[in-house]
Amino acid sequence: MTKFRITLVSAILVGVLLASAVFAGGGCGKEVEQTLRVNLGGNPTTLDPQKTSSARDLTVVVQVFDGLLGFNQDLTLKPVVAKEVPSVDNGGISPNGLVYTFKLRDNVTWSDGQPVTANDFVYSIRRVFNATTKAPYRSLFYNIVNGSLYKQGKVSAEQVGVKAVDNSTLEITLTSPCQSFLERMALWAVYPIRQDIVEQYGNNWANSPETYIGNGPFKLKEWAADDHITLERNPNYWGTPAKLEEVRYAMYADAATEYLAYKAGDLDITSIPVGTERTLAESAELLSYSRLKTNALFFDCGEAPFNNTALRQAFALAIDRTALVEELQGGRGSVTYCWIPEGMPGYEAGYQGTTGSQYTCNATEAKEMLALAGYPNGQGLPRITLVYSNVGSNPTIAQFIQGQLSTNLGITIDTVGVGQAVYWNRVFGEHDTWDLAYVSFSADYPDPDNWLPDFFSTNGGYNAQLAEYSNATFDAKVTEALAQPDSALRLALWKDAETVMVADAPAIFLFNDEMFVLKKDGVKGITGTAMDLYTPGDLFLEDVYIE
Question: Are residues 539 and 510 in the same domain?
Answer without folding.
Answer: no
